[in-house]
Structure formats: structure tokens, C-alpha cells
Design brief:
single chain, alpha/beta, 15 helices, 64% helix
Length: 359
């Protein structure tokens, strides 16, 4: 099957077989790695083997959207990101390309033609594109950082909740809006912390603590911010199934709440069946779906398809956003969404236009 971009992709049967083989492929290639290169990973102990399996599983999760939609770039971005993580941790980066080769060989061997050949050729294209790229892309496109962002980042890494709240409260007292503060202070600070984790300068625990403090500060900021007149319009916001990253969607929630919308915020990892049923029962004007990683594109596509099938022409308009969408706006049409947005302010303006409400 050839997709709209002229790239060979798998049909439903091929994708189903590919998914069924993923676990076995990860196990087989992981065993092959440790048989051939055990000395490179001995210092990591049992955790090294577990991390190897996790990385291989992520390779395949990112490969699935390539096989479904024919979009190579999201996986290339992921590989560049992973390469930088491996460099920072002293892991041989040539093993990354080798893992792609061995995964491709596995599927060629275990899938019937032409499906196995499609997967194998796709892996070759991914490997070649990744290795020939001149420079790694910047995945996190941060808004312009205000001077307070650096102090806020330092405060988050210290785990100082009181000082973090004081910084944001001081900006609010100066007459700045919470949405602008989230966009130009909190978001850039969190992006910087993410970059430092990638460079092995910040631990997972520090990153989680920073996220928790940022979320707390945002909640307190909403409580002390004025709300616009009610618009009589409603929006339902949710991270699709598998998406645990809620901070960005929380910022979108705050923006809509302060703009006078009625907001239903369902948070992280909402199962598709429950999400569709809740939309049918509550009938919001707009549904906003957050997608962090390319492997979740299949899920959001299914959510939109089910909404269309079960509700029909009167289904709410669907707006999509998140890291997986921001770099590739064309995905909105491919997924069946009505629009996409890259940040909280843009989401409110876009939804207002869709819903006939002045922003």
C-alpha cells in the first residue's frame, strides 16, 4: 500500500501481525545484543538488560506510526534524542544503528512477504535518514523565556515550593496573566529541566519533583486569578490512552477556565472507550486531545473515528495538540481532527473561532 506521500505502508493485517510480533522481536534482539556485546553493559547490571529491552520496545512503538502513516520524521527525531541520551551516559551510540538493523532482520524473517519486506525496507530508510542527518533537531520549541524563567528553574531543581509560588505570585501581583506566566516562565523552565535530564545532569526524581511543584503553583495561580465572563461554551480536555504527560494540557485547561469556558479536564491516560462514552453523555462543544508521542497517533485517530461513527455529523469539533502534533501540523487532517494548536493561548483562540466565540 502506498500512502499520500508515496511511502510504502502496511495495511490492517500487516499492522496487526507487526504488533503481535513486537514482544518477541524485543526479546530476540535484546538476547542477541547481550550475547555479542555483554561487556559494554556489565557496569549497568540487571538494569542494563532491562533498559535495552525498553529502548528496543520504544523503537518499535515509534516505528508503528511510520508503518501506518508513512511519516519518517517523528522517528528520526526520537532517534536523535535517544542518541544524545546514550552519549551523556557513555553508551556506545553505534549500537543504536545496529539495533535498527537487527530489528529489521527479525521482521523480514518472521513476517510473510510483502509485509516483512515493507518493515525491513522501512527500517533501512529510518537508519539511513538518521545517520545522514546533519544535526539533531530541537524537539522542544519553547516560547520566549522571560527573565524569571531561570530563577523559577533553579527553584524547581531545589525543590523549593514556597519560593516557586512566590515567584509566580509576584508576577501576578505585577499584573501579568497566569496564562502568560505559564507560557513564558513555567514552560521554558520545564523544557530546560528536560534538556538537563537528557544530558544526564538532572535525575528522574528531580524532574518529577519539578513537575509536581509546577503543577501545584499553577493550581494556586488559578485560584488567585480573575475569570472572564462566561462564554456559554464548553470544552472537554483529555490525554489519550497511554499519554501520561499532563502539564501542558493543564496549562490549556487553565487558559480555557480563565477565558470563561466551562472545562471538563479528564487528565492523563484516558481509556478510549471511557473517553468516547463521556463525550456522548456530556456533549461538549469541543474536544481537545493531547498526544505526546507518535505511537499515540493511532489511538487519537481511533478516538476521532469512534466519535464520528457513534455521534455522526453532530459530533463535537476535535482539536489536537501536544509534542507529537506540534512539529507536524498536517497530522491533524490525517487523523481526522478539525484543527491543531501548539500552545495554550493558541488553543483558546482556535477553539473560540471553531465555536463562534470571540476570544
Amino acid at each position: 500500500m502506498i500512502n499520500h506521500a508515496g511511502f510504502q505502508v502496511l495495511g490492517a493485517d500487516g499492522l496487526r501481525h507487526f504488533k503481535e510480533l513486537q514482544t518477541d522481536a524485543v526479546r530476540a534482539v535484546s538476547d542477541r545484543f547481550f550475547s555479542a556485546h555483554d561487556s559494554a553493559y556489565q557496569r549497568f547490571g540487571p538494569r542494563g538488560r532491562e533498559a535495552c529491552r525498553e529502548d528496543l520496545a520504544f523503537h518499535l512503538e515509534f516505528l508503528r506510526p511510520v508503518l501506518e502513516f508513512g511519516l519518517l520524521q517523528p522517528m528520526i527525531d526520537y532517534l536523535h534524542w535517544l542518541n544524545s541520551v546514550l552519549v551523556a551516559r557513555g553508551i556506545p551510540t553505534e549500537h543504536l544503528a545496529l539495533s535498527l538493523d537487527w530489528l529489521g532482520e527479525y521482521f523480514v524473517e518472521h513476517m510473510a512477504a510483502p509485509h516483512g519486506n515493507i518493515v525491513g525496507h522501512t527500517q533501512v530508510a529510518v537508519r539511513s535518514t538518521f545517520q545522514n542527518a546533519e544535526a539533531a533537531p530541537t524537539l522542544l520549541q519553547s516560547p520566549e523565556a522571560w527573565p524569571a524563567a531561570a530563577d523559577f528553574e533553579t527553584t524547581l531543581l531545589r525543590g523549593d515550593k514556597r519560593e516557586a509560588l512566590a515567584i509566580v505570585q509576584g508576577l501576578l501581583d505585577d499584573g501579568l496573566s497566569l496564562v502568560d506566566i505559564e507560557c513564558h516562565v513555567i514552560q521554558p523552565a520545564m523544557y530546560e529541566i528536560g534538556e538537563k535530564w537528557q544530558a544526564n545532569q538532572v535525575s528522574v526524581a528531580q524532574e518529577h519533583l519539578a513537575t509536581a511543584i509546577a503543577q501545584m503553583v499553577m493550581t494556586m495561580g488559578v485560584l488567585s486569578s480573575p475569570t472572564a465572563a462566561q462564554t456559554r461554551k464548553s470544552i472537554l480536555l483529555a490525554c489519550v490512552e497511554g499519554n501520561q504527560h499532563v502539564l501542558g494540557l493543564s496549562m490549556v485547561c487553565d487558559a480555557f477556565h480563565l477565558a470563561g469556558w466551562e472545562v471538563q479536564y479528564l487528565g492523563a491516560n484516558v481509556p478510549t472507550r471511557s473517553l468516547v462514552q463521556h463525550v456522548k453523555e456530556t456533549k461538549p462543544d469541543i474536544v481537545g486531545l493531547s498526544v505526546s508521542f507518535p505511537q499515540q497517533l493511532l489511538i487519537v485517530k481511533d478516538v476521532i473515528a469512534q466519535l464520528t461513527e457513534q455521534i455522526g455529523p453532530s459530533r463535537p469539533s476535535v482539536m489536537v495538540g501536544g509534542l507529537a502534533i506540534n512539529r507536524f501540523n498536517s497530522l491533524a487532517n490525517i487523523l481526522g481532527a478539525d484543527s491543531s494548536c501548539s500552545d495554550a493561548l493558541g488553543a483558546v483562540a482556535c477553539a473560540a473561532s471553531m465555536g463562534g466565540v470571540s476570544p
